[in-house]
Design brief:
By secondary structure, this protein is α/β, with parallel strands linked by helices. It contains 14 helices and twelve strands.
Length: 405
Amino acid sequence: MSLDRLAVDGGSPVRDRMLPLGRPWITEREIQAAADAVRAGLLTGNGPLGRKAEEALEQVLGTPALFMTSCTAALEAAVRLCSVRPGDEVICPSFTFVSSANAILCAGGRPIFADIDRRTLNVDPAAIEAAIGPRTRAIMVVHYGGRACAMDRVLEIAARHSLPVIEDAAHGLGARWQGRPLGTIGEFGCVSFHSTKDVVCGEGGALVCRRPEDRRRAEILREKGTNRAEFLRGEVDKYTWISEGSSYVASDVLAAILTAQLERLPLFIERKRHLATRLTGLLQPVAHLAELPGEWPGIESNWHLYPVLVAQALRDRVLAALRAEGIGAAFHYIPLHSSPFGRECLGYHASDLPVTEEVSASLVRLPLFAAMTDADLEDVGTATVKVLRRLVRQDSGFRNQDSGT
């Protein structure tokens, strides 16, 4: 059978074995660190290994961070620290994971969804400003795929309206805007170490607070509303209930894994950037048939994702064809505003955010992870070129736009 014939149509696939969309890069170092923590009985949180992980995070971010059970927990804490109350509103994109909006709902607030910029896939600052009203209490931005939002415009809008900025930097560890690590630019930053990320510890996250007084409030909130963190540091001789709170402290076992992973973050980032540059080169023969991701001046992506936009009418066929070739490509978010909850409980319609809808229906994520081999990457490039050449035609309605490549 000819390799030119798509596997989905009976041709020979590029790969006999499926390449996953992503895979964590775990070594014996992480396994040993977790085992040592268990043997030492360090099973609870905010212990010596948790503090060591936070020190490693501070080295990466250049500012203190609180290790938490998840990025979701960090988002919930950030919204509460913004004093969001029932009836208040927080602006955020709809093209994001549900945790962004759930954090607002958990505080009794209402997410106000703003449309995204088709070129960057990040929230459109003009849409943020248009959504600001008398009940707006904060702005939440999401750095999609590890590429920074237009933070200069976001910060200017926020300052003019006296609104705090929460960065959902779940995709952003190791990426920078104007030399500043993502997650350290707004009043609050939230980072993820979920198993789908580059730096992982199974489940885990971190909260960055720009002001020391907010960091102390976050410590209390993280420790069930108590000042246990001060007690552990020897600052008080007993701890007690100070304020409302929750259980956001992550286990020292996870902290041990995280510390080992953070030691290799520079390697991860270097590898991802190499792979992304190489993949963009491999896809140049079909760059007129799809929109490839890029970077802009002042933005240093960590290349957490490699999203490609194709014609809406062909997207699902492209996904099916790539999977038949052995490439574990995937779509991404169902927009929150047009989800069942968004429509039935928040009153949104699909037509409310047209760019978000178009991007969601056009996006294809290609495998790109630090642990993949050069041969794996060649297969991704070969299969994608093969599929796009066979499925995408200039009369398909697709119009390539400037994607910054």
